[in-house]
Design goal:
The protein has about 180 residues and is mainly α. Helix content is about 80%, strand content about 0%. The mean pLDDT is about 90. InterPro entries: DUF892_YciF-like, Ferritin-like, Ferritin-like_SF, YciF. This is Ferritin-like domain-containing protein.
Amino acid sequence: MSILSFNSDSDQPALTKFFVDELSDVLNAEKQLTKALPQLEMAATSPDLAKAFAEHLKVTQNQIARLERVFKIIGMSPKDKKCKGMEGLIAEGQAVIKDTEDGSATRDVGLIVAAQKVEHYEIAAYGSLRQLAKMTEKAEIAQLLEETLQEEKETDMLLSNLAESFINEDAKQVDG
Protein backbone atom coordinates (compact mmCIF):
# COMPACT_ATOMS: atom_id res chain seq x y z
CA MET A 1 0.00 0.00 0.00
CA SER A 2 1.23 3.47 -0.92
CA ILE A 3 2.04 5.92 1.86
CA LEU A 4 0.96 8.77 -0.43
CA SER A 5 -2.71 8.75 -1.34
CA PHE A 6 -3.88 10.95 -4.18
CA ASN A 7 -7.63 11.22 -4.21
CA SER A 8 -10.16 13.95 -4.52
CA ASP A 9 -11.27 13.99 -0.90
CA SER A 10 -9.90 16.70 1.33
CA ASP A 11 -8.87 14.23 4.05
CA GLN A 12 -5.52 13.28 2.54
CA PRO A 13 -2.66 12.04 4.71
CA ALA A 14 -0.23 14.70 5.94
CA LEU A 15 2.62 13.31 3.81
CA THR A 16 0.48 13.58 0.68
CA LYS A 17 -0.36 17.19 1.50
CA PHE A 18 3.34 17.86 2.08
CA PHE A 19 4.24 16.30 -1.29
CA VAL A 20 1.65 18.41 -3.13
CA ASP A 21 2.79 21.51 -1.24
CA GLU A 22 6.39 20.88 -2.30
CA LEU A 23 5.28 20.32 -5.91
CA SER A 24 3.48 23.67 -5.74
CA ASP A 25 6.60 25.31 -4.33
CA VAL A 26 8.92 23.99 -7.04
CA LEU A 27 6.39 24.92 -9.74
CA ASN A 28 6.52 28.49 -8.52
CA ALA A 29 10.32 28.33 -8.32
CA GLU A 30 10.51 27.30 -11.97
CA LYS A 31 8.10 30.06 -12.99
CA GLN A 32 10.21 32.64 -11.15
CA LEU A 33 13.28 31.28 -12.90
CA THR A 34 11.72 31.79 -16.35
CA LYS A 35 11.58 35.50 -15.56
CA ALA A 36 15.13 35.66 -14.18
CA LEU A 37 17.00 33.69 -16.86
CA PRO A 38 16.60 36.33 -19.60
CA GLN A 39 18.09 38.92 -17.20
CA LEU A 40 21.07 36.64 -16.54
CA GLU A 41 21.48 36.04 -20.27
CA MET A 42 21.57 39.78 -20.97
CA ALA A 43 24.02 40.41 -18.12
CA ALA A 44 26.48 37.71 -19.20
CA THR A 45 29.67 38.81 -20.94
CA SER A 46 30.63 35.41 -22.30
CA PRO A 47 28.61 34.31 -25.33
CA ASP A 48 28.83 30.72 -24.07
CA LEU A 49 27.39 31.69 -20.70
CA ALA A 50 24.63 33.74 -22.33
CA LYS A 51 23.81 30.75 -24.54
CA ALA A 52 23.69 28.45 -21.50
CA PHE A 53 21.16 30.74 -19.82
CA ALA A 54 19.04 30.92 -23.00
CA GLU A 55 19.07 27.15 -23.40
CA HIS A 56 18.20 26.62 -19.75
CA LEU A 57 15.16 28.84 -20.20
CA LYS A 58 13.80 26.34 -22.75
CA VAL A 59 14.62 23.45 -20.41
CA THR A 60 12.87 25.25 -17.54
CA GLN A 61 9.74 25.78 -19.63
CA ASN A 62 9.69 22.04 -20.33
CA GLN A 63 10.14 21.35 -16.63
CA ILE A 64 7.08 23.47 -15.86
CA ALA A 65 5.08 21.41 -18.36
CA ARG A 66 6.40 18.23 -16.71
CA LEU A 67 5.29 19.47 -13.27
CA GLU A 68 1.87 20.30 -14.67
CA ARG A 69 1.74 16.72 -15.98
CA VAL A 70 2.52 15.42 -12.48
CA PHE A 71 -0.41 17.42 -11.12
CA LYS A 72 -2.62 15.91 -13.81
CA ILE A 73 -1.49 12.39 -12.90
CA ILE A 74 -2.44 12.95 -9.26
CA GLY A 75 -5.79 14.39 -10.32
CA MET A 76 -5.17 17.98 -9.24
CA SER A 77 -5.01 21.29 -11.02
CA PRO A 78 -1.50 22.75 -11.13
CA LYS A 79 -1.09 25.35 -8.44
CA ASP A 80 1.96 27.20 -7.30
CA LYS A 81 2.91 28.39 -3.86
CA LYS A 82 5.30 31.31 -3.46
CA CYS A 83 8.81 29.86 -3.30
CA LYS A 84 10.71 32.10 -0.93
CA GLY A 85 13.91 30.14 -1.43
CA MET A 86 13.99 30.84 -5.17
CA GLU A 87 12.99 34.43 -4.56
CA GLY A 88 16.08 34.85 -2.37
CA LEU A 89 18.37 33.10 -4.83
CA ILE A 90 17.14 35.28 -7.69
CA ALA A 91 17.71 38.38 -5.54
CA GLU A 92 21.30 37.22 -5.04
CA GLY A 93 21.73 36.94 -8.82
CA GLN A 94 20.34 40.43 -9.28
CA ALA A 95 22.77 41.72 -6.65
CA VAL A 96 25.66 40.20 -8.62
CA ILE A 97 24.54 42.15 -11.68
CA LYS A 98 24.23 45.36 -9.66
CA ASP A 99 27.51 44.94 -7.79
CA THR A 100 29.82 43.92 -10.65
CA GLU A 101 31.16 45.77 -13.63
CA ASP A 102 29.26 45.32 -16.88
CA GLY A 103 31.29 43.30 -19.37
CA SER A 104 33.68 41.91 -16.76
CA ALA A 105 34.81 38.36 -16.20
CA THR A 106 34.08 38.94 -12.54
CA ARG A 107 30.42 39.43 -13.38
CA ASP A 108 30.37 36.17 -15.32
CA VAL A 109 31.98 34.33 -12.41
CA GLY A 110 29.38 35.86 -10.08
CA LEU A 111 26.56 34.86 -12.42
CA ILE A 112 27.84 31.30 -12.51
CA VAL A 113 28.02 31.18 -8.71
CA ALA A 114 24.47 32.54 -8.45
CA ALA A 115 23.18 30.13 -11.10
CA GLN A 116 24.83 27.15 -9.42
CA LYS A 117 23.17 28.07 -6.14
CA VAL A 118 19.85 27.89 -8.01
CA GLU A 119 20.77 24.54 -9.55
CA HIS A 120 21.77 23.07 -6.19
CA TYR A 121 18.48 24.25 -4.69
CA GLU A 122 16.58 22.60 -7.52
CA ILE A 123 18.65 19.41 -7.29
CA ALA A 124 17.73 19.16 -3.61
CA ALA A 125 14.05 19.82 -4.31
CA TYR A 126 13.71 17.37 -7.19
CA GLY A 127 15.81 14.71 -5.48
CA SER A 128 13.58 14.84 -2.42
CA LEU A 129 10.37 14.87 -4.45
CA ARG A 130 11.57 11.98 -6.58
CA GLN A 131 12.36 9.96 -3.47
CA LEU A 132 8.89 10.63 -2.06
CA ALA A 133 7.35 9.70 -5.41
CA LYS A 134 9.24 6.40 -5.41
CA MET A 135 7.21 5.49 -2.33
CA THR A 136 4.02 5.79 -4.35
CA GLU A 137 2.55 3.28 -6.71
CA LYS A 138 2.81 5.89 -9.47
CA ALA A 139 6.17 5.16 -11.09
CA GLU A 140 5.41 7.70 -13.82
CA ILE A 141 5.64 10.55 -11.28
CA ALA A 142 9.03 9.37 -10.05
CA GLN A 143 10.27 9.05 -13.63
CA LEU A 144 9.15 12.58 -14.55
CA LEU A 145 10.85 14.01 -11.48
CA GLU A 146 13.99 11.96 -12.20
CA GLU A 147 14.11 13.40 -15.71
CA THR A 148 14.06 16.94 -14.33
CA LEU A 149 16.61 16.06 -11.63
CA GLN A 150 19.03 14.84 -14.32
CA GLU A 151 18.54 18.04 -16.33
CA GLU A 152 19.35 20.13 -13.26
CA LYS A 153 22.51 18.09 -12.64
CA GLU A 154 23.54 18.51 -16.29
CA THR A 155 23.06 22.27 -16.06
CA ASP A 156 25.14 22.40 -12.89
CA MET A 157 27.92 20.46 -14.63
CA LEU A 158 27.75 22.74 -17.67
CA LEU A 159 28.15 25.78 -15.43
CA SER A 160 31.10 24.16 -13.66
CA ASN A 161 32.73 23.38 -16.99
CA LEU A 162 32.25 26.95 -18.19
CA ALA A 163 33.80 28.30 -15.02
CA GLU A 164 36.74 25.93 -15.17
CA SER A 165 37.43 26.31 -18.87
CA PHE A 166 37.85 30.04 -19.19
CA ILE A 167 35.86 32.36 -16.98
CA ASN A 168 37.83 31.84 -13.78
CA GLU A 169 41.11 32.19 -15.70
CA ASP A 170 39.89 35.43 -17.28
CA ALA A 171 38.89 36.78 -13.86
CA LYS A 172 42.36 35.99 -12.47
CA GLN A 173 44.01 37.87 -15.34
CA VAL A 174 41.74 40.90 -15.01
CA ASP A 175 41.66 41.04 -11.23
CA GLY A 176 45.10 40.22 -10.53
